[in-house]
Design brief:
This protein is α+β, with helices and mostly antiparallel strands. 23% of the residues lie in helices and 20% in strands. Among the domains are: 191-246, no CATH class; 272-494, no CATH class. The two termini are 18 Å apart.
């Protein structure tokens, strides 16, 4: 579970955030020591539910507010602490951690002895800083008498912070289990990725005032003895090879402008065709290709495929694998049709499969399958997203393991004469030639496995159909290159569908046979307590308007749900009969702060994860 707190700045409480966290910590202590009565629907019994705070997730400034460790200056690293090797740049005058990481390498690593590519003529012989566990850190805080921000005499923290890296004793140490947690505070990857991207992009685009490639940086490189090609010579600074010229900038911006990505993930693995439908009849070549592909990809028919191959080997002892493949493509469907008429029961599924589908099919433009939303190329070309890229593993009957990449042209639903009617969804695609370049149209980078396809080289065989359930989604990215030989090439970006358990579905609460709680539990459905009033609801003078919101529960309220994992924002107990686990969605009360005080609370999203255990 996540408890998300958004605190806007810039006049945020900084280290005084602990004042506002007091109600939360008090309730977390109660949940750990006393727990709350709850009912296990799977076991039909009451139990005492306990909860523990796992960790916090925040950006780096909020890390300081929550942990109490200063994240500025030479000791900003919360792992190295006082053992940090950070230093200030002579010309840029900023703190840097350049070349502070070789100490973490194996003692015999060659980088430790490298005097050229790191700081000039400097080798690294020291080991990594010692790892301090929670108990050691807490002992350190108590030894130097750091206080909580709301304790009497907390002013001493400002004096101690000048000597040590700590600003306070964090309120989270009041949790009895906090010192035993291996990980207590985490950094939000989103902020790190954004900052790194901004710095790289502004530098290669040479954005004035934001690029990191400036005169001071060049002089600092010379001071450190690295990257001599960027040093100033004769008072002049040569253009870096990573900085784009005007033509390349325009090309990159145009490329960014035309990029279209897939819609994202769809949380279902069931095949579902949506949108406007139309019927048409398959051409003779289409019918043969579709029927053959379905036969060769139906598990129940594998024994007949093996039977056909054995007959081929008996009739033609020297037949090769490519020849067998061609025979399967040309004659297997007709052979199975005759075999079904003579040997299979007329009311069996395999008999109807052998006789082939109806020639009339239903065509769609959109299909949702395998966690993806697919659009046909013609349907999606005018949209802001592209969902027509298709990839399948190998071919339908080839013995090689090539990946096939193509463009979805049509979603086809075929029907068989069986009762009840059996339907199969196929993708009609145009495939790129999977043969390696230069003979074919595919390049696979030997080291990084990046795939490139040539959009002008098509697969020479007529083999347009695949089962929709076999398809995964890809996006073909053009190259922002001035080289003409890359105009028709596209890099393949594989979209990873999110794994989804079909049993994990959102259910409505059971309306009948509601779980009965024998033990008495205090329940408050609606409260006029100021803590439960939306702080955003106030009049023009700033006075709180007591608008009572339906479904606002006391934080200790529990409500039983018969459906597994049925979570919502109101705080409900949910049982999973298969795992014999019970989860409680913790909802902290709104801190009783009047809108008149106009308190500005932190400019970061702090996600506090809570894990749940049995008593």
């Amino acid at each position: 579970m996540f408890l998300t707190v958004i605190v806007p700045g810039p006049k945020n409480p900084k280290q005084n955030i602990d004042v506002f966290l007091q109600p939360l910590i008090a309730e977390l202590n109660d949940l750990w020591t006393e727990g709350i009565p709850a009912y296990d629907i799977s076991r039909k019994q009451n139990f005492q539910l306990h909860a523990a705070l796992m960790w916090t997730i925040s950006d780096f400034p909020a890390y300081s507010m929550l942990s109490g460790w200063s994240t500025s200056g030479h000791r900003a690293c919360p792992y190295c602490m006082e053992d940090s090797q950070a230093f200030s740049l002579k010309h840029g005058r900023k703190t840097t951690w350049f070349d502070c990481h070789r100490r973490f390498l194996n003692i015999n690593h060659r980088f430790r002895r490298d005097k050229k590519n790191f700081r000039k003529n400097i080798t690294e012989h020291s080991g990594p800083p010692p790892f301090l566990n929670g108990e050691q850190i807490l002992d350190h805080l108590e030894q130097f008498e750091f206080k909580r921000v709301f304790d009497e005499g907390a002013e001493i923290n400002s004096e101690l912070s000048k000597i040590f890296g700590w600003n306070k004793r964090s309120i989270f140490w009041d949790l009895p289990y906090w010192k035993t947690n291996v990980i207590r505070h985490n950094l939000d990857v989103m902020h790190i990725e954004k900052n790194v991207f901004d710095n790289i992009f502004n530098t290669i685009m040479n954005v004035e005032g934001k690029t990191k490639d400036n005169a001071n940086a060049r002089r600092d490189l010379q001071e450190l003895g690295i990257r001599p090609e960027l040093w100033p010579y004769g008072g002049k600074y040569h253009k870096a090879n990573f900085t784009l010229d005007k033509e390349s900038m325009n090309l990159l911006l145009k490329w960014l402008n035309i990029l279209k990505f897939p819609d994202g993930y769809i949380f279902t693995y069931d095949t579902r065709c949506v949108g406007k439908e139309r019927t048409r009849f398959l051409l003779e070549a289409e019918y043969k290709a579709a029927h053959t592909y379905i036969l060769l990809n139906t598990q129940e028919a594998k024994e007949f495929e093996h039977m056909f191959i054995e007959q081929l080997r008996e009739s033609y002892p020297g037949i090769t694998l490519p020849q067998i493949e061609q025979q399967l493509e040309d004659h297997y469907a007709l052979w199975f049709n005759e075999y079904g008429q003579n040997n299979l029961p007329r009311d069996s599924h395999l008999y109807y499969l052998s006789q082939g589908p109806l020639t009339e099919v239903t065509s769609y433009n959109v299909c949702i399958v395998n966690g993806y939303k697919f659009h046909t190329y013609s349907y999606g070309k005018s949209k802001s997203t592209v969902n027509s890229g298709v990839c399948i593993r190998g071919s339908n009957y080839n013995y090689e393991e090539d990946d096939f990449y193509g463009i979805l042209k049509e979603v086809v639903e075929v029907e068989y004469r069986a009762r009840p009617i059996k339907k199969v969804v196929l993708f009609n695609c145009g495939w790129f030639d999977p043969t390696p370049h230069p003979r074919g149209g595919t390049i696979v980078h030997p080291k990084y496995k990046i795939v490139e396809v040539n959009t002008l080289k098509e697969y020479p065989k007529y083999d347009p159909f695949v089962l929709a359930k076999q398809a995964s989604q890809v996006y073909f990215v053009p190259f922002p290159s001035k080289k003409k030989d890359k105009v028709n090439w596209r890099a393949v970006l594989k979209v990873q569908a999110k794994k989804f358990d079909s049993s994990y579905t959102t259910m409505k609460e059971a309306e009948e046979d509601a779980a009965f709680q024998e033990d008495e539990v205090e329940v408050h459905e609606i409260s006029d307590d100021e803590r439960f009033i939306d702080p955003a609801r106030c009049d023009s003078s700033g006075t709180m308007i007591p608008i009572l919101r339906e479904g606002v529960f006391h934080p200790y309220m529990v409500e039983v749900s018969e459906k597994a994992r049925d979570f919502d924002v109101c705080g409900r107990i949910v049982a999973d009969p298969s795992l014999q686990d019970v989860f409680y969605l913790y909802q902290a009360p709104i801190t009783p702060i009047s809108c008149k005080k106009k308190c500005n609370i932190i400019c970061s999203a702090i996600e506090i994860c809570i894990t749940y255990v049995y008593a």
